[in-house]
Fold:
Amino acid sequence: MASDRQPADEPEYGDDIDQSAFEQILEMDEEDEGREFSSQIVFDFFDQAVATFEGMDEAVQKEELEKLSQLGHFLKGSSATLGLIKVRDACEKIQNWGHCSDELNHNPAPLSKKDALKNIKNILPTVKEDCAAAERILRAFYNAND
Amino acid sequence: MDNTSQNGSTGGGGSTSSDFVRKLYKMLEDPSYSSVVRWGDDGDSFVVLENEKFTKSILPKHFKHSNFASFVRQLNKYDFHKVRHNNEEGGGSPYGPGAWEFKHPDFRSNNKDALDNIRRKAPAPRKSNTMMDENLPTQQMDLVNSQLVATQQQLRHLEERYSELSMHHGMLLQELMGIQKTVINHDHVLQNVMTFLQSVDAKHRRDSRIGGPFAQQNGTDMLQEIPPSEDLPASPLANATKLLDELASHQLNFKNLEHMNEMHSRTLTITTPPPGARREPHSAASSSSLAYAKLNDLDNLVYPAGPNNGIDPMYSEHVHNIPYPMPSKETQSDPRTTFAETRKKSTQVDPGWIRPPQILLVEDDQTCRRIGSKFLYSFHCHIDSALDGLEAVNKINEGSTYDLILMDIIMPNLDGVSACHLIRQVDQTPIIAMTSNIRSDDITMYFNHGMNDVLPKPFTKEGLLTMLEKHLGHLKKIPEGLDGIPQTASTIHPGSHSIKDEASPGSPSTASNWASPNQFSGVSPATTGQFPQQPAFAMDQMNHVAHQGNMHYSAPTTPITASRGTGHRRQISEIGPDDVGNDPKRTRIYATTNAAMNQIRRV
Structure:
């Protein structure tokens, strides 16, 4: 029943996407509506991610660490729900660095504001790229199913 | 000669008082001292020109001491005054910068008789004055201090007494609630037995009246037509039903009790009221919770008594609500496989509610919210959602009632913990924190503010379902599947069939909460079955203090040792058997007292 239902039953998970988490989302799709539910969520997420990254760029410019932490937390939640683990991990780091904490790197000493900002600045391009990579995979998956 | 007359006159005026003055006068008569001490230029004062010499050589001769300060003090006693020379009047003393000039109106070089007028100033008031000056403040201070200490002590005693009493009060409440739960459980067992007996009775009567007006073609008809007056159940049954009904009404008190318990724990817990804390009048709260309780009671009553004695009308109603096709006789395996076959995929899990639970999902992130909603939907829940804590609080304040609230923690406008705190002022709905911040101190904080549980993010479907089943046990269908139930019932009544299926191992923790007596041993921590154990543990607490209390929450949390105020907060339903506020309670009391003490000290 599963094989003839969809051309591709699952995306190429790879390192970017956590299979079990994403499968949970796919399971939620109503059969007679294609992948409408999950695709909506996924595409909305990427819109949200783009907007969040813009917010992060701006916050870096203004050196607003607290804001960065908030945005990191925000995107962490949704990316984790979708199983975008790389994005999630990076966001968690941003969230922590925003509070000048480096505990994720097993470094108990608090960071200076400057270092925290520098770390975030450095990771931002990476997380954007990770997110884009995940987006390519998922868009390919959903397009194939259209 | 002068001396004797002086002596005579002083003898009349009080020899001691003028002795000093006399000596002073005599001293000034000695011209050899003139370079050190002499009469002033006008003869109305005397001047000490060389302080040091005067002190060392003259004072010992005439006054038997060599202390200039006491000499000056003596002068003061006799009302001599040091003459001060203001700079305007000639720039310092005319006798030199180091000179001391003393003056008394009756102390003149040419008027020896006036010396009699020089009297020691009344010593008593002077003395008492110094007493006042020096001692009174310290005395007062001492007095105030000792009063303060006493008050502090009293306060502390009161504080201790209060915490002790509150603790006992809390224990008693817990115990009472446990007993209430036990009663409810018994009630349910009784209801099941009643249902069974009822059907046996009905069958018996039916069998004895073959061909009667109510000959049965199909079971549904039969069950619905039992009530008519000619077919009243045996009177013992009716009596029992009545009793059960009375029992059920006690559940209202139970809600009150819960409310009281919450109030109690709130006063004990040290909380920081979030900004803009809004307190709804408690009357509103209790009335709403009463209404809620009533509703619950109805839903819980499988076999309510009353005018229409017979099968619960609610029951037939939820037969209609069964969200999937009535399973036929042969699909008696796992309800979910049944479901998967009759519907589409095996994603829809029906946990078997007696009615769809009302869930409030508070989440600012739309991805999480949508997925959470979807999961809940698939669990046959009715979902309401709020985008932040403020909206959630508003919904509650507007009177919306839910069976469960899923609450994100970090949200704009009002965070989940503050929202929970506010909701707790008026409502006891279980609140589950949904968060990725699950460090033990975070979790302690959640519990301290009235959260009932923690669902770590990102949550899985299974995790969410487990949480629902844990906290909504009272909404689970009560399995009807007593083995002795007449065949007619099982073939005729499709509803009971599916219910029976729910109890199968297929659905986790669906296993009957109340139905079988062995459930009461408290095996399953997630179900209400454990309650009967509660009182025993509470009793334990009364008797000894040093009970090793390991707080363990079901969620993947680390043991919380120094948590304050969690014991009372949580619904009994998720307190593990060895978890009934032991050390934490103590710690809290200690902390409370301590805090109070600190406050006193600060005052």
Q: What stands out?
A: DSSP finds five helices and no strands in chain A. The two ends of chain A are 19 Å apart (CA to CA). Chain A touches chain B through 26 residues (CB under 8 Å). The longest helix of chain A spans residues 113-145.
